[in-house]
Amino acid sequence: MYDGGKIVVGLVVFIGVVTFPLWYRQASGEALRAPEPKIVTDAKECVAPTDYMRASHQAMLNEWRDLVVRDGMRVYVAFNGQEHEMSLSNTCMKCHPNKVEFCDQCHNYIGVVPYCWDCHIEPKESN
Amino acid sequence: MSDIPEGTPKPEQLAQIRYKPPRRGWMDKPVELKKGTYCYSARSKFMEYLNLPNAREWNPTEGDWKLPADWKQTILDGMRERLTRFRSFRLFMDICVRCGACADKCHFFIGSGDPKNMPVLRAELLRSVYRNDFTAAGKILGRIAGARELTVDVLKEWYYYFYQCTECRRCSVYCPYGIDTAEITMLGRELLNLVGLNIGWTIEPCANCFRTGNHLGVQPHGFKDSIDFAVDELEEITGVRVEAPINKKGAEILFIAPSADYFASPHYYTLLGYLALFHEIGLDYTWSTYASEGGNFGLFTSHEMIKRLNAKMYAEAKRLGVKWILGGECGHMWRVVHQYMDTMNGPADFLEQPVSPVTGTRFENAKSTKMVHITEFTSDLIKNNKLKLDPSRNDHWRTTFHDSCNPARALGLFEEPRYVIKSVCNNFFEMPPNTIREHTFCCGSGAGLGNDENFEMRMRGGLPRANAVKYVNEKHDVNILLCICAIDKATLPVLMQYWVPGVEVGGIHEMVANALVMKGETKRETDMRGQPLNNAEEKEHV
Amino acid sequence: MGALVSFFAVVVLVAIVFVGVEAANLRYLFGVIIPYAALITFIAGFIYRIVIWARSPVPFRITTTCGQQKSHPWIKNDILDNPHSTIGVIGRMLLEVLLFRSLFRNTRLELRNGPKLAYEWEKWLWLAGLVFHWSFLVILVRHLRFFTEPVPVLIQALEGLDAFFQIGLPALYLSDAVILAAVTYLFLRRVLIPEIRYISLAADYFPLFLIFGLVLSGVLMRYFVRVDVVAIKELAMGLVAFRPSVPEGINVLFYIHLFLVSVLFAYFPFSKLMHLGGVFLSPTRNLANNNRMERHTNPWNYPVKVHTYEEYEDEFRDKMKAAGLPLEKE
Q1: In this structure, are residues B195 and B67 in contact, taking their beta carbons and an 8 Å threshold?
Q2: Touching check for C148 and chain A: CB below 8 Å?
Q3: Mean per-residue pLDDT for C277-302?
Q4: Which residues of B touch C61 (CB under 8 A)?
Q5: Which of B48, B184, B312, C108 could form a disulfide with C122 if both were Cys (CB 3.0 to 4.6 A apart)?
């Protein structure tokens, strides 16, 4: 190899960057964990099926906000016919009262910062 | 009297250029050698003199190119060898993304509209074969991967298009990866040379240079005659008799200029400039008959030939015992001196770091190669007020400056020549910014293509340069195109005659000679060309 | 031709993974085995290609100078476009790699009557190329949130910046919009400009279609067909920790996305995409123009047959003598 020194250094840096997740994982040393959102309720069902809620709750909350704030509608008819008040604080947080143990579990895991709490007051236990 | 060969299309006809490529893919279109756009083959006697392979008489327009039986293997072996010797080659074969930024930067494409003159496609001519024989993708996918087999037709295409590139490196300025078509053309020509496909206009000068020390084949006594004649002529113009030492041992400086300077016009006026200048500053220098050529047509032939011809410079400097070397106005000579000489034929440890004996300036930028460009030298003289100059003696000239490809894109020699011109001429006008400095356009006749049989292609390739001259000619009445390259001086006059009649071509040291007020000179009646100075009587000499 | 071949190649790739996941349930193959294989191919192939280049020397210092050289102290040297020192070269390379300096010089030729040549402003290729590469980088970096736990602050900050305008929900990433526009532009110029179409090979269209498919599947997953990102991260973290598992319920769209990116990685070292590594090795850019200051050596510099002065004098001695030129041997 010619200019071997420079080229090897360059390659090492490049491979280092490319494999960042691998050694970052090793360096952090913690065991693999999956998020375990905690639910405190006797209710059997949410306002929509679990699969839907896992992937699309943000879309629903967004829709709720628009309906309540802009159109003054407050009642949501769920997939099973039940009626719910469209409210993060009064409906959602009745069964999922703890932001740290519920919301943050997944949100921190995948690094998504929702803007719910830009307007809503965060539950006390977060502090 | 016209220097334009008969049968050459008129400028209006030539200017009808179609840039739209044909519908049919380029790989299947065999090359057509059109009269006026290709170069004749090399004569066997010159090939033999240089011990080049497959020396024979042959004609590119005939079907049989008299190739050796194993030509294909020879070329492929040659490619393999060069891929391991030149990182540039392998890299430039591999990394082109065909973005097309280079396409309309080539003067031959601009002037001809032939898509194979787009630098990217010129390289693809070679790349397609590289893919076919040296990459896995090409071997498996063939055409889909852009690979094609090396055939005689492909070889003919190489001959036509690698001798339709002047190695000016303009495309390399715009390439996001710095792919240098000159490098590809040089290696392409080396491959062609392996099977005896050389052009006459590079091999004859090489053979001459090898034997006599210069491209023109001027023998030592002829060289002395030329210089002596110039000394006489300079005396007639200036009234000053100068010394012009030849092969003088123990001189401080060896001066090497392109041979055209002492044999062709308008180069000759630049020679008068060197002689006048060196006399006036009392330079202890010598010419050499053995190293009587600055240029190096080896650059247009092969790396080996560069080295074979260039070896004379250091060898002669050593034999004569000079301290350092000064180089004249030449373009590709300076590519060789700057980028190849020290590596090939150095180290020049028998020389000293160049110091101007007049100003004491140490040329730090030449401390290893020990060779200084004449405009670096002269600009330093002027900056230090060592010359008495009367720029009004150039008032009949309205000048512009053509950056020659090699000093521009291999050195970055931009300000030194401009400083000299502005010091010796009152009228200087730049051509448009996209056509000067690193963007400069080639004369269209470099790299061995400046022959008569290639005339039409030269006029096409020179169109962008000529067009920029036309612009300043119309806007500022520019009447002389100054340059620091012997090939420019040989080929730009006819280019001007063809596209911009009325514009002359000259060297910078011709202008220096006109303006230089010499000790003991008689009243200057004419310039170096013998043209009367209009305002001679209005002026007072100091 | 090349465009069609490449288009169908990408369609076939998508079809393979669709059938493989939906019909044959090869989730482990597409979720674990192929991504690992692609990464290994990428790294090994990349090193291989660089080493091949590195094994050829740079015999001559063939810098392309694009500015004033360093000569007299009173002439300003253009240190970035014509560097004579290592610092200058680093500066030049940074400009080249980060800002595509050379492409920025691009112009467009126009031939008018006269003939009159004009060099028109043309920065679109530079702009599209630049934003394409930068948005690709941003996208790659923000994907690290799926491969790191906890997610580093910088990556989250970058993501926040990318979604700065909070358009829609989930907020639109600027990089997504930009890369789609840039890839579309790069594709259209390839097919619409006759010269560019003429020089384009299948190998030029393929990466464009591949990247377009890649971005499109990503965009669909984020904005239209929402997928279970927690499950996806579990899969990703399993790969990263070398304890691969395939969680249930991940949409096939994700497998398409992952397969296309795997193909891109595996294809990379064997294609023109290696310009990523090659640009750093380009001898016309990465060498200082200090040719006459410092000697460059050529490892294979071999002796050649020259015409010595002695041979020259032997041939011309009589003529030189007659002309009164000094001789070594009388």
Answers
A1: yes
A2: yes
A3: 97
A4: 339, 343
A5: C108
Domain boundaries, chain B: 11-30+53-197, 207-536
Local structure of B335: helix, strand or coil: helix
C208-245 burial code (b ≥16 CB/10 A, e <16):
bbbbbbbbbbbbbbbeeebbbbbbbbbbbbbbbbeebe
Amino acid at the residue C90:
I
The domain tally of chain C equals: 1
Interface test with A, best of C230, C232, C282 (most A CBs within 10 A): C230
Q: Which pLDDT tens digit goes with each residue over B240-274?
A: 999 999 999 999 999 999 999 999 999 999 999 99
Spatial strand order in the sheet of B480-483: B399-402, B480-483, B504-507
A24: in domain: yes
**Of B90, B117, B92, which Cα lies nearest the Cα of B104?**
B117
- Residue B442, token pair as written in the block: 């080639």
Q: Which CATH number fits domain B11-30+53-197: 1.20.120, 1.10.150, 3.30.160, 1.10.1060?
A: 1.10.1060
Q: pTM to 2 decimals?
A: 0.95
Q: How far apart are the first and last CA of chain B?
A: 41
Q: What span, in angstroms and rounded, lies between the C-alpha atoms of B222 and B91?
A: 47
Give the number of other CB atoms < 10 A from CB of residue B41: 23
CA gap C86, C65 in Å, rounded: 15
**Within this chain, do residues A66 and A10 fall inside the same structural domain, yes or no?**
no
Q: Dmax over Cα atoms in chain A, in whole Å? A: 74
Q: Is residue C13 included in any domain, yes or no? A: yes
Coarse DSSP helix, strand, coil percentages of chain A, rounded to the nearest 5 percent? 55, 5, 40
Cα atoms in the Cβ-side hemisphere of radius 13 Å centred on B375: 34
What is the tally of structural domains in chain A?
2
User: Cβ of B346 and C322 within 8 Å?
Assistant: no
A62 and A28, same domain (yes or no): no
Tell whether B4 is within 8 A of chain C (Cβ). no
In a domain, C327, yes or no: no
- With contacts defined as CB-CB under 8 Å, which chain C residues touch B51? 305
CB-based contact C155 A111, cutoff 8 Å: yes
Per-residue pLDDT, averaged over C97-115, amounts to 96
| Domain of residue A25, residue span | 1-32
* Predicted pLDDT at C193: 95
Same domain, yes or no: A121 and A59? yes
Q: Which residue of C has its CA nearest to B433?
A: C119
Question: ipTM score here?
Answer: 0.96
- The candidate with the shortest Cα–Cα distance to B397, out of B515, B284, B233, is B515
CATH assignment at residue C171: 1.20.950.20
Radius of gyration of chain B (CA): 24
Residue in this structure with the two tokens 């992937």, named with its chain if needed: A55
C307 vs A78, more confident = C307
Mean pLDDT, consecutive 10-residue stretches, chain B (542 aa), reads 83 94 90 94 97 97 96 98 98 97 97 97 98 94 93 97 98 98 98 98 98 97 97 98 98 98 96 98 98 97 98 98 98 98 97 98 98 98 98 97 98 98 98 97 96 97 98 98 98 97 98 98 96 64 44
Among candidates A21, A33, A55 on the partner chain, residue whose Cβ is nearest the Cβ of C228? A55
Contacts of A28 in chain C (CB under 8 A): 149-150
The alpha carbon torsion through C171, C174, C180, C182 (nearest 10 deg) reads 170
- Token pair, residue C124, equals 């679109």
